[in-house]
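Aim 2, interim progress: modelling of the flavin-adenine dinucleotide-bound target.
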Amino acid sequence: MDMKSFDTRFRIIRIKKIIRENDVTNTYIFDYPLFAKPGQFVMVWIPGVDEKPMSVAFSDGREFWITVCKVGGFSSSMHELKVGDKIGIRGPFGTHYEIGNGQKIVLVAGGYGVAPMYFAAHEAVSAGCNVDFLMGARNKDLLIYTHKILGLGVNLQIATDDGSVGVKGYITKILEEVLGKSKVDKVFTCGPEVMMKAVGEISFAKKVSCYISVEKYMKCGIGVCGQCAIDDTGDLVCKKGPVMSWDYLRKLPEVGQYHRDAQGKKQYFFKKTI
Ligand SMILES: Cc1cc2nc3c(=O)[nH]c(=O)nc-3n(C[C@H](O)[C@H](O)[C@H](O)COP(=O)(O)OP(=O)(O)OC[C@H]3O[C@@H](n4cnc5c(N)ncnc54)[C@H](O)[C@@H]3O)c2cc1C
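Predicted structure of the complex, ligand included:
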């Protein structure tokens, strides 16, 4: 393992810049040499609030970014922070997307998953890959990073549920077309688990390797607490993931079905009818 991309030290750092991506999403930029790889995460601590995992949205050895969507207690506290405020970090932790030189790669992203996928696209372009970036959102107001992605010169295609931008419908429709048209080496995806499950199934049907960033409730991030154990194998997502192959995940009963909350209780993505 490259020890630069796994760092358990606890550091206090200051926010250098905040970019408002949309009404509920901010990007935080830090002048800090993190040495992360696309798909890895950092544990972010706000004193007196909590410590939560956040995917690295960019890292070049000088600065790094995280992009936070406001959904609950911790993320709302993040949104109250100002430039110059301090936070604590540990990491980077976890597995990453393996990007080979000159490959044909399709990235499928939804929600704040677009941010770490941007990082993957950036690395893939540097490695001479041919990149299709497929982005899904409920509507145009929820899109993020579009200008940054276009700036990489990759082929960006968008689908929105209401058709306010791009194709109307799910991004998986575009994925099926792209995989049907040309030979693709790998599919990488990050976003809502139900979307990623569909991406995994389509890629599997087309015999293309697919890698997914699994999001489970994490407390320690380093394999000590056991909170992010996945059914039925008990593997810890913070150590074996978050980036895992669909080949492995497709055999597990909880993927796309439920996640566990802070108390370990199952929370189903859809209400059970039986
Ligand atoms: C590896 C990893 C990377 C992450 N990267 C990012 C990131 O880049 N940006 C970002 O904004 N967040 C990211 N998260 C999520 C983040 O860690 C927090 O869970 C999120 O900010 C919600 O915390 P909260 O306290 O604001 O809300 P909470 O009060 O904890 O939750 C708010 C709502 O979200 C639901 N929820 C919480 N966790 C999940 C889950 N796993 N699946 C489905 N619903 C869930 C809760 O049930 C609740 O309804 C990541 C999580 C992991 C494990």
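The chain has seven helices and 17 strands. The mean pLDDT is 95.
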